[in-house]
Amino acid sequence: MRKIACINVSRHLQHYVVESNDSLLAKLPVPFRVNCVLYENYPVDQLVPYLERFRKIPGASIQFRFDYTATTQENLYDEENDKILRDLKRVTKYTGLDGCRMRCGFHFDYKGMELMYHKTLPYSTIVETDPKDGVTYDILYDILIKQTGDIHSDWDGTPLDVDAYGKAVFEPYDLKWLTRST
User: Fold this and answer.
1) In 3-state terms, what secondary structure has residue 122?
2) How does strand 151-152 pair with strand 176-180?
3) How far apart are CA 85 and CA 75, in angstroms?
4) Does the reported pTM lie above 0.90?
5) How far is residue 151's CA from residue 172's CA, in Å, rounded to a whole number?
6) Sign, CA torsion 181/51/122/139
7) Residue 168: what pLDDT?
8) Is the CA virtual torsion 129, 137, 102, 122 positive or negative?
9) How many angstroms separate the CA atoms of 86 and 8, rounded?
10) How far is CA 177 from each of CA 4, 76, 87, 100, 113, rounded to the nearest angstrom?
11) What DSSP element (H or E) covers 60?
12) Average confidence (pLDDT) per 10 residues, the chain, 182 residues
């Protein structure tokens, strides 16, 4: 029985570190997903060559990610002002959108290769006030375990209040298809 279904590999349009040779990726016995953060001023002229680079390797899919430090609840699903989304729609076939309150994913096809562009909020907790009874509560989506073993409820170093979350109401982190194109 297979234990590994997919491997994530970071490769960027702008190089931050020395990358391994792409020929090693072609030797992987499982599909792999290439993760690439696109910051606001990424080299748009390198987008198609980048896609072509990985389209030639069997088993590859690409996941572009918006700079999560610039993502807010207000722009999470913004399509009109999203330069990256416009650029991707120019060179690929848009196939749909999935999402939840913490994350969204725009799906594309590039000459038969699966591609996704996603945005994720830069925290794992949403604080809300119930309009019916005025009670304020936290909705926790991720529990973060640091290399030190410390357990946190958010990426800003907030320690997890284990007792408080032991009584929390569960809200699933479930991505749902919001639109689909064919």
Assistant:
1) coil
2) unpaired
3) 12
4) no
5) 20
6) positive
7) 65
8) positive
9) 25
10) 25, 15, 22, 9, 19
11) strand 60-66
12) 69 72 82 85 92 90 90 92 95 94 92 93 79 81 73 76 69 76 74
Phi, psi of 36 (to 5 degrees): -145, 120
C-alpha to C-alpha distance for 168 and 126, rounded to whole angstroms: 13
By 3-state DSSP, what share of the chain in percent is helix, strand and coil, each rounded to 5? 20, 35, 50
Confidence at residue 3, expressed as pLDDT on a 0 to 100 scale: 63
Which tokens hold the place of 83?
């330069």
- The span from the CA of 70 to the CA of 40, in Å, is 9
Q: Strand pairing partners for 37?
A: 65
Neighbours of 138 (CB within 10 A): 16
Q: What are the residues whose beta carbons fall under 8 Å from the beta carbon of 153, sequence distance 6 or more?
A: 124, 125, 138, 140, 143, 144, 159, 160, 161, 165
| CA-based R_g, the chain, Å | 19
pLDDT of residue 112: 94
Tokens of 177: 């298809």
Question: What is the distance between the alpha carbons of residues 76 and 120, in angstroms, rounded to a whole number?
Answer: 7
Task: Dig out the tokens for 125 from the structure.
Answer: 């907790």
C-alpha span between 141 and 173 (Å, rounded): 6
CA–CA gap between residue 42 and residue 119 (Å, rounded):
16
What's the CA angle centered on 51, arms 41 and 49, to 5 degrees?
70
